[in-house]
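User: New here, please read:
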Amino acid sequence: MTKFRLAIIGAAFLALIGLAGLNYYLNLNGAQRNASVDLDPSKLPGGAFTLTDQNGQVVTEAALNGKWTAVFFGYTYCPDFCPLTLQALAQVQTQLGGKAKDFQIVFISVDPARDTPASLKAYLDSGGMPKGAIGLTGTPDQVASVVKAYRTTASKVGEGDAYTYQHTTAVYLMDPRGRYNSSYAYGLSPAEMAGMIKDAMAGK
């Protein structure tokens, strides 16, 4: 067999492998898209809640309607993840530009014993925090209920006045109908998060 024929056969073999790989890739992506469409809404983060905001007003899940909402769970005594995430969300507001009017931030405390409406207000009014952020707290039962509804976690660590919380650090993006859209892991840059939120707003 000549070298020319060997080259032709080799090229044809590589082409077949490439086509098989492309077909597998397309089928795999299709399965992933279908899986995301078929998710049971009852198993996604979100749901009914009744809490109290930093102004002492009762707030329900209806507050999420009409805007894209970034929901973040934390507490005012948090030494690291919470202030850094909220400061990042403040930068996201800026990077959204004109779309920021359709976006809001909700900070839900997992520490009802210390996070009163007044302490939440002082915390969110401090420098570097997102403008217009809604801070929510409640009774231990109310907080436990919303933590469960959002499939998040919050566990008290330690005793006495210096206790902390081990909690989920993701940001949940809810659509203007209050439905879960996506979540963003801690550590994403404000630019990355803003880009993803813009894509969600555009239906991408």
Remarks:
- Confidence is low (pLDDT under 50) at residues 1-38.
